[in-house]
Amino acid sequence: MSKQQSNREKRYQAIIDSAERLFTKNSWETVQMQHIADAAGIGVATLFRYFPKKELVIIAVAEQLLSRELGFFHDIQAKKLSGFEKIEAIFHQYNRLKTPDVIDEAKFIDRFDANIGDIVDYETAAAKYFEIRKEIAVIVKDIVQEGQADGSLPQGASVMDEIMTMINNFGLFARKLALMNDILELEATPDAKQQLSIIHAMYMARLRG
C-alpha cells in the first residue's frame, strides 16, 4: 500500500469515527458536515470529496456499527461451545442496556433501520449494510444447525425460523427499551432490565425444551 493510499484510508476512518461519536450522541439534524470535518481534523471540502451527502456518512456509520456486531458473531461461532450456549451468548450480546455507549448505538441503529427507506436509492447506497445483515443471519443459521447436531437445541424444521424470530424480536425489544430507558426509569416495576431478563428467561426455557 502506498503512503498516499494509507493516508487516505486513515482519513476515511477518522471521518467515520468522528461521525459515529457525533451521530450517536446527538440528533442527526443538529450534526452538520462542518461538525464532522472539524472533529476529524479536516476541511469540509475534503469531507465532501469522501462523502458528497450527509446521508452517506450516516450509512457508513451504520455499516461500521454493524461490522463490529459481525465480528462478535464470527468470534462466537468459532468458540468451543454448544449451539445452545452460542445462542444464549447472542441474547446477551443483544442486551442493549449494558452501558450508555451501547444504548446510544442502539438508538442510532433503531433510527437508521426505521428511516433508511427515506434515503434516495438506499438499496444501492446501503448495499454493504444489507450484506452484513445477511452474513449475520447465515452465521446464526449455522449455529442453530450445530446446536441441533450436538443435541443442545430442539430438533425440527421449524426450529430455525423460531430461533431467528426469537433473536430478531429480542433485539428489537432491547433496542426499544434502550430508546425508552429514561422514561421507564420513572415508572414502577418491572423496569427495563427486568423486562429484558424476563423475555430472555422465557426464550431460554423454550430452547431447553
UniProtKB/TrEMBL annotation:
The lineage of its organism: Bacteria, Bacillati, Bacillota, Bacilli, Bacillales. Keywords: DNA-binding, Repressor, Transcription, Transcription regulation. Residues 32-51 bind DNA. InterPro entries: Homeodomain-like_sf (IPR009057), HTH-type_TetR-like_transc_reg (IPR050109), HTH_TetR (IPR001647). It comes from Salinicoccus roseus. The keyword Ligase does not apply. Residues 9-69 form the HTH tetR-type domain. PANTHER family: HTH-TYPE TRANSCRIPTIONAL REGULATOR RUTR, HTH-TYPE TRANSCRIPTIONAL REPRESSOR KSTR2. Signal peptide: none annotated. Gene3D superfamilies: Tetracycline Repressor, domain 2 (1.10.357.10). This is TetR/AcrR family transcriptional regulator. GO terms for molecular function: DNA-binding transcription factor activity; transcription cis-regulatory region binding.
